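Exercise 3.2. Students should predict the tertiary structure of the chain below and write it as structure tokens, then compare their answer with the key that follows.

Predict this chain's 3D structure.
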Amino acid sequence: MSQNMLLDIVYITLLTVMAGAFIPLGGLLASLERLSPGWLEQEFRHFLIALGGGILLGAVAVVLVPQGKDSMGDSLWAIPAIIFGGLLFFIIERVLGLKRRESPQLMGVMLDFIPEATALGGLAIVSPSTAWLLAILIALQNLPEGFNAYRELCDLGYTSRKTLAFMTVLVGAGPLAGLSGYFLLSGQPVILGAIMLIASGGILYLIFQDIAPQSRLDRHWGPPLGAVIGFCVALFSHDVMVHF
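Answer key:
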């Protein structure tokens, strides 16, 4: 193994571990004493659900779709790839039955972190600045997703320790996916682009099927502003990476 390859492996591992660590960090924040009064607790939770949805939407709009289309040479096959992603996530959701168990945030954590980490591994050599941006966006979206997934799992009867342990295990999926992308996809831009576009379609499905409906509260302004802020966070991260 060459020294450059070893450095690449360390680089990808650090990026994906950093991004994945925000899953249990979000869970740890959620495990702290709940806010009082009750209306503030409810407002904050729905704000975070919307914030996560906004960041996901921003990741799709400013990174995954543009980079995916570019990797595929602006081919019209990008559109079927996005549609396929939505259909794929719909089928997975039905097979796992997670909607019936009311855990869409856990679905979001599982199904967007792994393909995004795979794309990150493939981009790390092809476009290092895009890989950094994607890692930052993955981390930012994992924090509110981890927070809300923790609350969902606890509401289903899982203990705090078991929930946090499960979230910590999920961190290990990041380096595995990222290194798979590095070894298998760094020289396959079309496949790499297709994965990003499929992930985009799945994320869009999750946002409008599960996350957006959960974020809404009657006569409350916090959740919709959270979605706007989340999207702007993604856009700001993109602009910082492009200009600096």
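Discussion points: DSSP finds nine helices and no strands in the chain. Residues 38-71 form the longest helix (34 residues).
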